[in-house]
Amino acid sequence: MKSNMNTSRILHLNQLDKTQSLPPDAYQAKMKVLKNRIRELTFLSKAKDRPVLFVFEGWDAAGKGGAIRRLTQEIDPRLFEVHNISAPNSEEIQHHYLWRFWNRIPQKGHIGIFDRSYYGRVLVERVEGFATESEWFRAYEEISLFEEQLVSFGTIVIKFWLHIDSDEQLLRFETRKNDPLKRWKLTEEDWRNRDKWSLYEEAANQMFQKTDAPKAPWFLVPANDKYFARTMILETVVERLQEELK
């Protein structure tokens, strides 16, 4: 598997090749090397007082949680925190939508990981009508300025979208439904969201175009094959951290 920094700069979901895959033996070999390198680079970011922020977005059942677990497996647990983002609580709803994310931004030398993020403003809030058109359209500039401030502080920002097709999502939903240990992950909302696939796809593509930036780039990951997706994500992390920490 070759470096994916160039191919991952695709910023439209229809341009991704979702047939890409990786054999299990190649996956295991690559992951061992990549995890070790990420451990070294996160110690270097700590030594240089550089915060790191990872943003994970994508379809339901696309593999965000599994990718995050592999990313963090060899990182010192004192250095990172994973934030699983859901609907704002009663206190958070009284503030600007970015308020709760400012409170979770990593300090110098530490790593913050958002499993879903402030991009919900231009995704679920847009599609489901939780934000008005003027609110979600204004959010593109608000989010870009938010990330510019993080970058100016020295934060390394890396954003991923995990992309699967509708058939693969259906297969994974059915697998979860039939597995007592995974059934809890599946909700009625997940099924309903499938009916709005084209609306979410339109919102995602517009989000990439409006919020991609040289220092806060989007990396679109073909994720029908979990081995390929996880390896691509870790390779991208290694390349971005090496670039930022040299």
Give the secondary structure arrangement, pairings included.
Elements: H1 24-47, E1 52-58, H2 64-72, E2 80-84, H3 99-102, E3 111-115, H4 124-127, H5 133-153, E4 156-163, H6 166-177, H7 188-194, H8 197-211, E5 218-222, H9 226-245
Parallel strand pairs: 1-3, 1-4, 2-3, 4-5
Structure overview:
The protein has nine helices and five strands. It has helices at 24-47, 64-72, 99-102, 124-127, 133-153, 166-177, 188-194, 197-211, 226-245, and strands at residues 52-58, 80-84, 111-115, 156-163, 218-222. 47% of the residues lie in helices and 12% in strands. Helix 1 (24-47) runs parallel beside helix 9 and helix 2 (64-72) crosses helix 9. Strand 2 (80-84), helix 3 (99-102) and strand 3 (111-115) form a beta-alpha-beta unit. The chain is of the alpha/beta class and 246 residues long. The longest helix is centred in the first third of the chain and has 24 residues, at 24-47. The chain has a five-stranded parallel beta sheet with strand order 2-3-1-4-5, with helices on both faces. This is UDP-galactose-lipid carrier transferase.
Quick overview:
The protein is an alpha/beta fold and 246 residues long. It is 47% helix and 12% strand. It has helices spanning 24-47, 64-72, 99-102, 124-127, 133-153, 166-177, 188-194, 197-211, 226-245, and strands at residues 52-58, 80-84, 111-115, 156-163, 218-222.
